[in-house]
Amino acid sequence: MRPLEGMRVVSLEHAVAAPLCSRHLADLGADVIKIERAEGDFARNYDSYVHGQSSHFVWLNRGKRSITLDVKHPAAGDVLQRLLAGTDVLLQNLAPGAAARLGLSHAALAPAHPKLVVCDISGYGESGPFAQKKAYDLLIQAESGLISVTGSPEQPSRVGISIADIATGMYALSGILAALVRRGRTGEGANVKVAMLDALAEWMSQPMLRWAYAGSAPPRSPGAHPAIAPYGPHRTKDGQVIFGIQNDREWSSFCTNVLHQPEIRTDPRFATVNGRRDNREVLTALIEDVFATMTSMEVVTVLEAAGIANGRLNEPKDVWEHEQLAARDKWREVGTPNGPVRALLPPFAFPDQEAAMGDVPGIGQHTDAILAELGFDPAAVAGLHAAGAV
Description:
- By secondary structure, the chain is α/β, with parallel strands linked by helices.
- The chain has 17 helices and eleven strands.
- The chain has two domains: about 10-205 and about 330-385, 3-Layer(aba) Sandwich (Rossmann fold), CATH 3.40.50; about 230-315, formyl-coa transferase, domain 3 (2-Layer Sandwich), CATH 3.30.1540.
- Strand 1 (about 10), helix 1 and strand 2 (about 30-35) form a beta-alpha-beta unit.
- The protein is elongated, with a radius of gyration of 26 Å.
């Protein structure tokens, strides 16, 4: 039995944050019903890289059932109420205040649905001067300070994936799962609230602590760790390798077994973590002088022998073909409206039960089937279509 098998999740979702959360719930076995507008989740049109379909949508929406429903239509209320009668989780990332105006706030629903877990995702929270402000991933990366610590000394940079949305979706997931665990003990539902700014502000805690108590912000150093050295890319005879030294034991092994210069270990400039960081440029030059006579593979070999953590600077194609993922059988095939695609199993794994890994739905693919499950007869379903409610 999958962990959430038998549970229903209704999601009024679009873009990335809420769909990421609900896709993980679907992978865990929940019946996720995705409510879309007639034109569909706008993430369906972000790009056309996967058999003419959006790579974002294919990634975020497997295993769900899609119903097209105009939630503002007068006839939609009956559909929603029938849906909620058998629902465990209601998830939404609509515009600020929209769910409450539709009567879908936790306060409005709790009297009739006391066991319901309602998860509200917002950009900046539901109070304060930014409560009504629009929030997109890039804007939250900027507002949270993440861009200020990313990039080169000359140019700050956006993180290359939708990290604000991803962080928010994962906090929503953990909050929902915690609420379901508590409901199992108390029988009571809950209101989980997650704001995008809060999610990335949490992830920015270390830079903020540094600024608050030391008066300095982390420098932008592309590829290198701002607080630890050596930790990042280093040039070799034919390219570069990435490795990191985390403690004095590793530093000693590195000096003795990789550089073959044990005297550097106690050099006053490099003997401490702070010293190595403050003298990073001198230390990097010294290391690269040694690596200049070695190929990248030769460097990796000696790093491995010395017990020094290292990695390759892979591109997306390299991860798609990564031997470690293949060796661990991490890929599956899922269906989409335009043909099958390869998809990764989720990071959480249960040895006795594989993730559901369902197909990616077409727009409104399951509308009529879901309505029938809710007790609408064929004539009523036809009437909802004719009225434009679905």
